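Standup notes, structure subgroup. Blocker cleared on the magnesium ion input:
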Amino acid sequence: MALIVQKYGGSSVADGQKIGNVARRVALSAGDNQLVVVVSAMGKTTDGLLALAHQVSPSPDPREMDMLLATGEQVTIALLTMALHALGLRARSLTGFQAAIRTDEAHGKARIKRIDAERVRAALHAGEVAVVAGFQGLSEADEITTLGRGGSDLTAVALAAALKADVCEIYTDVDGVYTADPNIVPEARKLSRIAYDEMLEMASLGARVLQSRSVEFAKKYAVPVHVRSTFKPDPGTLVTREETAMEDVVVTGVTHDRSQAKISILRVPDRPGIAAQVFGSIAERTIVVDMIVQNISRDGYTDISFTLPRRDHARAAAALEEIAKTVGAEGIVHDERVAKVSIVGVGMRSHSGVAAKMFATLARESINIQMISTSEIAVSCVIEDKYTELAVRALHDAFELARERPAERGAHP
Ligand code: ADP
Ligand code: ASP
Ligand code: MG
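Run returned:
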């Protein structure tokens, strides 16, 4: 008998009928296995709750926001458990609190500190399916917290680690991890395996399919993660330890992120302490900056540009208008219509010329590169948002990602 953690995302439980389908899918696995099922809020519930909060307040209190958002997942656990009962299965719903998911105090992006999971284990020992609310936890001060958007993935992986589950299955609306978002690149190919590091990089560079912190957690505790479709029985993608053969492939995937904005501060005096002042004021507002570019200095002045999440850009721009005056800069310009496209692959560690090929591909499509950043296994370019789809398709084509890589043949999990 195996212990399996399954997670079903929002689109998989979007209405009563879909919850019924999930219940049948759970029933199929429940026969021979111990099962923990983690669920997200139904459909776009979380977006709806966020919008409601902003209707009643321009800056909702973070504690109250978590109190509100956590209700979404609670609806789904109760409904799925009822649906399981209707199929004759024994099942019990548990909130994040009841599953003892303990986090730090950071409302909206809490980190999991430990999971005692006694009640989850008790339910399993009693022969019940444990249906756990994703995305939510409880701080040491017994406040309800949430784990950041897409956080149900993290709940599932963390429970799998705590319970030493045999596998953590992430059921979603695509049947695995693809070489690019299949909703944008029709030729994108499903990967049968992907290394933790590649998946982590793809997730943090915009591939929504797994939340990046869940991949970090999976790597740290060596949790095998299997991404698969809620609607089709086919095998999906196994996220796993790196194997030597994976290095033979230079680029594994192309990702894009359209949630970015760019701000430039023009003609800043080029002297020590200016960058500290500029980015200090951004950090004070807990805004996370991504790429930073400072141009070479001309006649004692320079331009500094950086990217940040689009939702924070109005707040950051207001703060920087002030800073620009204080430090004697000419002013600021901001651009909400930027996107980041990236190529990712562990093989980049041992191959050269990859970045040059990426730049040449974008040039061929007459796409201007505004900013560049690199890591050991990724290269990212900031471009004008309207070229995103064109860029992703061109890169997918140039790196021949639709072609099966040799290391994958016969490797289906
Ligand atoms: P869930 O609600 O199940 O958590 P998400 O919407 O968070 O689902 O994630 C699934 C979506 O991720 C897919 O519909 C797809 O559009 C998107 N996606 C982006 N990049 C990729 C990729 N490389 N492979 C698969 N899906 C991707
Ligand atoms: N419901 C939360 C969200 O929409 C968590 C999740 O779906 O994973 O972000
Ligand atoms: Mg998700």
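Discussed briefly. Residues 370 and 382 are 5 Å apart (CA to CA).
Next: hand off to the docking folks.
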